[in-house]
Design goal:
170 residues, mainly beta, Jelly Rolls, six-stranded antiparallel beta sheet, two-stranded antiparallel sheet
Length: 170
């Protein structure tokens, strides 16, 4: 039997009552909810390139899923780096493309830095599927404290460039 219990913020008590003699409590996992504030919204962002100067990097952090950043075509790898302003505890990146776009896979690695000089891998290069309708990918990882979060793109099955409408960090 599996049960999920949502507790309100603050100190709470969770009691597990078991009746009878035939039971086995294998494990009990307690966790806190991930942040709900997009730390990258309207922050400074830099791209390794843009397509003919159009589709700027700033479109990826403007809160509008219909505007987007696009890198130069046929030039891999491409990078998109957001400055959170100060080191923040982060555990999730959410990437969005315009909802009306067709399906595609993009190969993306997530890196982080505290000084914008030395980057370490947070999540290795993985092919992520953006599906029509929501065109949203969520990348979860162990919480880490970083000021700069970088996406490193190495492939896109739908277009010969890196593309992101929204680059959200939580």
């Amino acid at each position: 039997m599996t049960r999920t219990v949502n507790l309100s913020a603050g100190t709470q008590v969770l009691r597990v009552y078991i009746s009878g003699n035939d039971f086995n409590l294998n494990w009990l996992r307690l966790s806190t909810a991930t942040g709900t504030t997009n730390l990258a919204l309207n922050k400074s962002v830099v791209a390794s390139s843009t397509v003919n100067g159009a589709q700027p990097a700033s479109a990826a952090v403007d809160g509008n899923q219909n505007s987007y950043w696009e890198s130069a075509n046929n030039a891999w790898p491409q990078q998109l780096t957001v400055d959170l302003g100060s080191s923040q505890s982060v555990s999730r990146v959410v990437l969005k493309l315009p909802a009306s776009w067709g399906a595609r896979n993009q190969t993306i690695a997530v890196l982080g830095s505290t000084d914008n000089a030395s980057y370490s891998q947070i999540v290795g290069a993985t092919s992520y599927t953006f599906s029509p309708g929501s065109n949203t990918v969520t990348i979860n990882f162990a919480a880490t404290s970083r000021r700069y979060i970088r996406l490193n793109f190495t492939a896109n099955s739908g277009w010969p460039a890196a593309q992101v409408a929204e680059f959200e960090v939580y």
